[in-house]
């Protein structure tokens, strides 16, 4: 589709919304001293209703669940009324500027500093402006339905271009958002990035996929990477049967692969931010894993959306008990789509699921909170930095990890009980039909977000068994049980074995070499032999079973040389005291997973059929 045609579609789609709305909020973004890492922002609010204008900086950013004080980087704030008239401004909280006595127009200008390249913050330097809107733009309460215009101005001497899901405006540096929510969801890269575009199929109206990459690599590296991104985009569609109706009919991957970037991936409705300190050359598969995860989000989370996140609250943390599905199932499908698309090998996928299963089996956090409870921890655990210590290492299990393991478990369970006829893809497609595809009456919003009860109902419908559905949720989502992978994986021709049979195990300790022994550097998992022996973080283990311990490796070796069931003394130094406890060694709960063909037997026909149905490409129709 040509650019002119796209513009026509845009006008047709958005005219009703724009025509009915009040005066747009206009943002002008310029970079007079980009090298000093600040952006000049000028905002104009027009046709304001009488009464105070409540200006705010956000405290939350969609997809990042902890609260942030984005106001901290704002300075040199100037607020004026019609004709530059001075106005009274009240600062009730650090995040608010309440403007009194205006006569319908308020103009605000401020500087904002930003120096972190990721999916949450703002980064300005002489090579780009990498803008996450909630971290950068001041907005006004009560004007959420107004459209916004964003005008960008290149620094002197530079000719930067724009990569964004914002909709094209009057010229190449002017963009539009139909409302506040869409504006905030539209991160923007303004730089001399490299661009690759493709479409999938040649049906009229097929969406355009854009890959905008700001990096230090070569064009040919980017060409190869773009070909892999296209494979992912083609394969992911088959899970849901179709692409969403992208606003503007385009989806934009915005990547900053720069040695000084932080590693991150952040989903948005029609775009994603991908950042990494590594490069296409050094970390191609790692970067593609994030591409796969974030692209899956365009269905799962962006459109199949929990009610708890809709509409998103920019002032407070958003709490959802469903992130084991929103993030976890997305984490399960990330590598699965890569495998189906032929981007990774079977062995890569197997080590991925082995890691998931072991992390879940090892975590005592499961006994503290369910997968639903872990999801609700997101505002406290996701990107939150603390001065004081936490014991999250033992009380928290990431909803990414646990949710991905549940996704794997549900997929295998559905396939097992239906002999491969019903799969997790069917479940995702049902959620898409019920909650994602219906869309929203206002662009950027979701009219039929789901609740936990909706998820149970959809599983009942897909499996044809309401009792199974409610039992699955009770055990694995609201309970802390672990799916029986040892029974299910062999159906696909995989062997599941204990990872360290016959060796002693004292619990999952993080150890570091220390003067005269091995220092414990993280909270000790309760329920483990080490916990029962009284060991805790900061203790330095000096002897085990009466034998001196000289290093972390020495400690690990000394435990493994003994047998499960052995009782040993553990001597350690703690804050000036020498203490001796007793540990009864157990068996390492980790498992090892391998395809049967690696154990000297070919998969049986039904195992091969099960495996192909699960792991082979729907896009290529061959495994
Ligand atoms: Zn995610």
Topology:
Elements: H1 3-20, E1 25-30, E2 38-45, E3 53-56, E4 74-80, E5 88-90, E6 96-100, E7 106-113, E8 122-125, E9 128-131, H2 133-136, E10 139-140, E11 148-152, E12 161-164, E13 167-168, E14 174-177, H3 180-184, E15 188-191, E16 194-199, E17 208-215, H4 219-240, E18 250-257, E19 264-267, E20 271-276, H5 280-296, H6 323-340, H7 346-362, H8 371-376, H9 378-381, H10 392-395, H11 399-418, H12 424-436, H13 452-463, H14 466-477, H15 485-488, E21 494-498, E22 511-514, E23 517-520, H16 529-532, E24 540-544, E25 547-548, H17 552-560, E26 567-574, E27 577-584, E28 591-595, H18 605-615
Parallel strand pairs: 1-11, 17-18, 18-20
Antiparallel strand pairs: 1-2, 2-7, 3-6, 3-10, 4-7, 5-6, 8-9, 9-15, 11-14, 12-15, 13-14, 16-17, 19-20, 21-28, 22-23, 23-24, 24-25, 24-26, 26-27
Question: What's the short version?
Answer:
With 623 residues, the protein is of the alpha+beta class.
Q: What do you see in this structure?
A:
With 623 residues, the protein is of the alpha+beta class. The protein folds into 3 domains: 1-192, Immunoglobulin-like, CATH 2.60.40.3650; 323-499 and 592-615, Orthogonal Bundle (Neutral Protease, domain 2), CATH 1.10.390.10; 511-584, PDZ domain (Pdz3 Domain, Roll). It contains 18 helices and 28 strands. The two termini are 33 Å apart. Mean pLDDT is 94; it is low at 1-19. The structure holds zinc ion. Zinc ion binds at residues 267, 293, 297, 327, 330.
Which features characterize this protein?
18 helices; seven-stranded mixed β-sheet; alpha+beta; Pdz3 Domain; six-stranded antiparallel β-sheet; 623 residues; 3 domains; 23% strand; 28 strands; Neutral Protease, domain 2; Immunoglobulin-like; binds zinc ion
